[in-house]
Amino acid sequence: MADYGLIVFDASPLITLAKAGELDVLLRQPLPIIIPDAVYREAANPSYDDGVRIMEWIETNQSRVRTANTRAGLQQDILLKNGVRATDLGEAAAIEVTDRFLADNPDNRVALIYEDAGVRKRERDPRVDIFSTASFLHAMEGGGYVQSADQILEQASQAGRNVAEQKAMHTPEPGAGLLAQFRSARTGSTGLLDTTPNSLHKSPDDPSPTQGQTRGRSR
Questions:
Q1: Please, what is the Cα angle at 94 between 88 and 99, to 5 degrees?
Q2: CA–centroid distance for 139 within its chain
Q3: Which site from 56, 137, 156, 173 is most exposed, i.e. has the minimal number of CB atoms within 10 Å?
Q4: Residue 36's closest CA among 6, 16, 4?
Q5: Which positions ≥6 away from 179 have C-beta within 8 Å?
Q6: Are 122 and 134 in contact (CB under 8 A)?
Q7: Residue 211 burial (CB < 10 Å; 0-12/13-18/19+)?
Q8: Domain boundaries defined on the chain
Q9: Please, what's the largest Cα pairwise distance for the chain?
Q10: pTM of the predicted protein model
Q11: What is the mean pLDDT of each run of 10 residues along the chain (219 residues)?
Q12: What's the CATH number for 4-186?
């Protein structure tokens, strides 16, 4: 069976799990977790309490959670340093990482975790599987990795996260394929996503708040 990579396609899944206090759910499955640099900066924004939690979680779990440097992330960094708000670059970085992974590993597959509903409408490589946060959590529940996906979503809701759209996007069918990849990884049939210098790199510098931002806000 081909190797499998797990890529966080946009910041929202991390924010939802941080709101729920359940970021460690991602660590209960055996696949390596890849976060594009621009997605990292959007998710780990220290202006927000959940952003600080995400930043600390990534730093604590660098053996399992890696960030990938991208051209889009470099562009984002330049804009932020010049006080310009960077929009839509997280998605561009995620596409770049996904394309690079598949080009470097043509026999492999990749799973994307997302909350942007537009992801479902885009044409994609047949080696790419997509999972909304809700679908991912329900797949984890089906495999016994979490007790209740709905409870995690409810915890996020109680913390101010709007999860109604997530629940609407949940489709159970893809979960079986993801669980099969988990089982294969547990038995050593799949390898880890390449994190050599020519592919994925260490975490970029910690994001800095833009001028006028203050820590402690909610989003």
A1: 130
A2: 16
A3: 173
A4: 6
A5: 139, 142, 143
A6: no
A7: exposed
A8: 4-186
A9: 50
A10: 0.81
A11: 78 97 94 94 94 97 94 94 87 93 87 84 84 91 92 95 78 66 59 36 40 50
A12: 3.40.50
